[in-house]
Amino acid sequence: MNKYEHFETATLHGGQEPDPTTLSRAVPVYRTSSYVFKSADHAARLFALKEFGNIYSRLGNPTNEVLEQRVSILEGGAASVAVSSGTSAIFYAIITLAKAGDEIISAPNLYGGTYTMFDAILPDLGITVRFADHRDPESFDRLVTEKTRAFYIETIGNPVLDVIDIEAVAAIAKKHHLPLIVDGTFTTPYLLRTIEHGANIVINSLTKWMGGHGTAIGGIMTDAGNFDWSDPRFSLFTQPDRNYHGLRWALDLPPELARIAFALRFRTVPLRNLGACLSPDNAWIFLQGLETLHLRMSRHSENALQVAQFLAKHPKVAWVRYPGLPTDPTYPIAQRYLKRGFGGMVVFGPRGGKAAAERFIDGLRLFSHLANVGDAKSLALHPASTSHSQLTEEQQREGGLSPDLVRLSIGLESIEDIIGDIEQSLGRI
Ligand SMILES: *Cc1c(COP(=O)(O)O)cnc(C)c1O
């Protein structure tokens, strides 16, 4: 039996054999920048991708490699590349497949930083992002042109927690032979294995639930290995690459490597030459977090559901959104995809609008007021005045962000204490 057959086992063992030299049970942290070549020929073979091995820790590190293999197993993907943040994973994924003149079609309900990257930074680099309507998968179809290079979505959108019908979007991507990039940060592979529903490239911010303790920043890209890049539209894969010995990634490599052409180009072009590598210390922190991913995600989901049910009944609450509430607009979709829980995020608006939201946040004692999600500890934020304040009010409204919205990331504390804190702070409004 494959010892990684079950998710819960892979979180603990995936990608690792106990260290053969020291017999260390835990994954060692390899604090080294570089690795000794056995010979001139060995060095040449490594650089020519004729043999895989360690060269320099910007390109790869044995601690990071365990993390990469573990996440590939958890996602059901073919190859992963870890980088220094979720944000870098997204940027590198885009520039691995698109260049000036190309277009990306994206859902609009994105993490704030991703929205700014797509709305302001990529266009300045000549990559146009067209925003579809995440509630209407057909809207992706209508925006496709001969310049489109990928679709981009989040599993549970930030900040109002709409769950997207990923299979419907994947079917349209497939019809046009376009890759679907999915940011699965809010679900993690424990709640949703997006590759099984049609994703070709998966992004995870390790900073959030994957690491799970609010102790490090990191991101990872997983290549499902299920997309054929040999169509001439993907010129970065079919034309000789000036960035890598004139290699044509989709055409010149043997089939087992051409299959993971995306991961190879991601590592050897943007990561190698732009440099947002993950430190092995942080890779170790994420491996430690991953060991309990399954336990944490199910408890985050249980606690969040109870918070959502509590808020839904509270007289001082105007509205609440949680994908697991049967009254939620995207509950029918959430129920189809999220069989193991609906995640740790709850958003709501207290009666009394923006001022009441700010008062509620200031009254919290257990919850920490800060700009993160997915910590083991409960967190709260008012996005309109913080994480999404870069957006215009119109952009905020388009993404479904109202001025009264309070975002809660529900932690692993006692549910009585979590609800008790919310209750006392609502009492002060
Ligand atoms: C936090 C987050 C990111 C960015 O990740 P960092 O690790 O903070 O760079 C991207 N997408 C989503 C959905 C996030 O929550």
Q: How would you sum up this structure, described in words?
A:
With 429 residues, the protein is an alpha/beta fold. It folds into 2 domains: 7-289, 3-Layer(aba) Sandwich (Aspartate Aminotransferase, domain 2); 293-426, Aspartate Aminotransferase, domain 1 (Alpha-Beta Complex). 40% of the residues lie in helices and 13% in strands. It has 18 helices and 12 strands. It has helices spanning 7-13, 40-47, 62-75, 86-97, 112-124, 138-143, 166-175, 188-191, 206-210, 235-238, 255-258, 261-274, 280-290, 293-313, 331-337, 353-363, 393-398, 415-427, and strands at residues 79-83, 103-106, 128-131, 148-154, 180-183, 201-205, 219-223, 317-321, 345-350, 368-369, 379-381, 406-409. A 7-stranded mixed sheet has the order 1-7-6-5-4-2-3, sandwiched between helices. It has a 5-stranded mixed sheet with strand order 8-9-12-11-10. Helix 1 (7-13) packs antiparallel against helix 3 (62-75) and helix 3 (62-75) runs parallel beside helix 13. The protein is globular, with a radius of gyration of 22 Å. The relative contact order is 0.13. The mean pLDDT is 95. Bound molecules: pyridoxal-5'-phosphate. Residues 85-87, 111, 113-114, 154, 158, 183, 185-186, 205, 207-208, 217, 219, 373 line the site of pyridoxal-5'-phosphate.
